[in-house]
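Hey, weird one. I pasted the VWA domain-containing protein sequence into the form twice and got a warning about non-standard characters only the second time. First submission, copied straight from the form history:
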Amino acid sequence: MTRSISGLLASALLAFPLFSAATDGGSSILVLDASGSMWGQIGGRPKVEIARQAVATMLKTWPAGQSLGLIAYGHRRKGDCADIELIQSPQPMNAAVFLQRVDGLQVKGMTPITASVRLAAEQLKSTERKATVILVSDGEETCKADPCALGKELEASGVDFTAHVIGFDLPEGPARQQLQCLASSTGGQFLEARNAGELNRALEAVSAGKPVAVKTAEQWIPGHALEWSTGEQIDGVSAESGARVIEFAVDRTAQDCQAQCLADTSCAGWHYEPTGSFFIDYPRCHLQGYGAPMTLRPEGEGWVAGVKAGVKLIRVPTD
């Protein structure tokens, strides 16, 4: 079954480029946010507890031959931007020992993302192997540094370094922009997780090298319809939910349908069905919501489909 990540529109529209975080026998470091904000709760559970459980799930499928290290920040002192610790250098996996170290983290302090990722890059550079950082953070940099600038610096240095970033319950604003830029600057992926299930799937995807396909949405696709995959249920969203049809007057156009979707915050994609299709004598505008897999169906002249700008088309097989 295909599942969506972080509320983005899951899709099987085209053949997309794939990324793999940890399948080549290289070295990785997990950078965990242990700042004070990780005491915040989701569904009545502290975020730090959810993160610990997600790491435990990730380790069950960690690739053989892939070394893993651990860096944490904000776990020892309040208000100290130097509170960054290399807890475990990259080494062959011992899940019990690794989990013991993760479970021992206390959440207290600041969010020095930039310095933490720099430390990870320095450690991985010394291994002279393909280097991957997996960063899990729930907030923006709070120590007068720029994760985006660091990503560009590392990429320009020529080091074989990739940062995959998971934004966990991120607020709107600078935090998302910083972390997106860090990932994209190093050729990595930025994934968002709003709850325990999404964090589990995001960590599993970047660590086990599952094929996660990402493509920027196309806003205008002539001759096609965008529809939900039939017969599947994705994260509790049935194939029949989240979609609605608006019957247009005969003079309404595909541009009107696109405008209808753009004005509706719950709409992720749309398609325009012209007069005469399926024996109807008026056009129809189909609006699709977020959270379930979509298919792009060829139709013909007069049909147009599209997806909002900024929405990602993502496919993550889980079997």
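That's the output from the first submission. The warning seems to come from a hidden character in my clipboard, not from the data itself. Residues 47-59 form the longest helix (13 residues).
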